[in-house]
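Amino Acid Chain and Its Fold in Token Form
===========================================
What this section holds: a protein sequence and its matching fold, both as plain text.
Structure line: whole-number tokens from a learned vocabulary of local backbone shapes, matched to residues.
Purpose: to set a sequence beside its fold so the mapping can be learned.
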Amino acid sequence: MLQHWEAGDQQVIELWSTMNGWVYSGFEKTYNQLGVDFDKYYYESNTYLLGKDIIQEGLDSGVFFKKEDNSVWIDLTDEGLDQKLVLRGDGTSVYITQDLGTAQLKYDEFHMNESIYVVGNEQDYHFKVLFLILKKLGKSWASGLFHLSYGMVDLPSGKMKSREGTVVDADDLMSEMVETAKERTEELGKTEGFSETEKAELYNTIGMGALKYFLLKVDPKKRLLFDPNESVDFQGHTGPFIQYTHARIKSVLNKAGFSEATPVTKPASISSYERDLIQVLGNFPVVIEASAKEFSPAQLANYIYDVAKLYNKFYHEESILKAEEEEVKNFRLHLSATAARVISKGMNLLGIQVPERM
């Protein structure tokens, strides 16, 4: 069928287009639920021909060689790898063919210094081979390619994998997360005064926040066990704990009628709780930079948790709205507003929403 598809057989193309339509429609629904969008799509159907051209270039320059069955290979044994098929004997493409074309097309369009491939660690070998081939082909930009390899995710019921029978449907998992968020939120009575529409939005915000945060707080390279129930704990190292902290701060600010425009002065003395919170808030730009340089959203995720944890200590130990002096009250309100701003911005960078009230 692949031969017919690459030859442009109309019946095969029509069937392929129909099936692709179903797939992309389902993808869009899932990504919308997750709050994910893409600036650009690259389709293998549009890059495999460019990949074949690159392979021909490699044959002409001696980077690739043909076997008796006419298949095209590259010998990487000197690099501690093995021989790799890059084009079948019948002339049809393989994954590496398409990836070569996609890499070239991306560079032709963006001339980027760095390109990051976010793909599971089961593809470590594939990307090692891909990057090495591009370097051997003399692509100067190949040194800027990076595979952000992440560990597999286990559920109590099995492994989340896309190519085995233990597949976990993403839509089912997200629905379960929203339902669990609803149950926990209602148990704790955190929806008083909410309309039904507002409740539904809150459950979705908490459910998706719990899912994303639990996955992102772990170093990308590590394998993790994802427990849906644990992830929605409002008291643990979780997204909902951080979300609730943000809502708590907003409640304090609203009760005080706080305005950012209100001038602030430092009190004669500050407590250890205030000092600790100020110091961690000041680290925000450094943490963002480190997370970016090391390709580790986990650093940012854990930093935000530290901010939420320290704020809650400060909240429980120091009076804010009932502070004895107006200067102290105003200072603590500004400190609270800064904590809320850092939490909101940090979670937004992770693709997680934070509610204004809860």
User: Anything to note?
Assistant: The CA atoms of residues 276 and 337 lie 16 Å apart. Residues 170-350 form a domain with the Isoleucyl-tRNA Synthetase; Domain 1 fold (CATH 1.10.730.10). The two ends are 55 Å apart (CA to CA).
